[in-house]
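Morning F.,

Quick status update on the modeling queue. The single chain you submitted on Monday has been processed. Sequence for confirmation:
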Amino acid sequence: MKRYFMGGIATLVLISAAAVSQTPPPMPKPGPEQKKLEYFAGSWKSEGDVKPGPMGPGGKFTSTAKAEMMDGGFFLVMHADMKLPGFGDGKGLSVMGYNANDKNYTYTDYNSWGEMEVAKGTVDGDTWTWTDENKMGDKVVKGRYTMMIKSPTSYDFKYEMSTGGDYATVMEGKATKQ
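Structure tokens below.
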């Protein structure tokens, strides 16, 4: 009996030692998709025009943003100060990343006006295209935000909306790295 008991303890000790001695899997590393997000790191100033329409009366808008890659290099976190016609001054928090399972970029934004937005993005050369769906009252509104990189320190952008037909430009402008 003692022999079986000692054999069982020896087996448990060997299994425990083998489990502890195994090296943990390596930490994941950012891939080329996450590296593309590094373009947006830094301080940015944006300005442009909002067209009169469902978002308000239209006019000039400005924003400043500071963005940095989160520790680990997988996500870009951006804090923005904005001034929009019809809304006034506001603040925003955005996170950009890449979803390897769905093979698309992700964008989530929260602002001080109580809005939250989730978009999916793709990249084709120097053009980033983000799409989303939101409700305005009882209507589903599709949005398309396009960023055309012009240089290492600037990009043009356009935001378009559709309620089922053609897309209409709602906002367009330029962002410059400071």
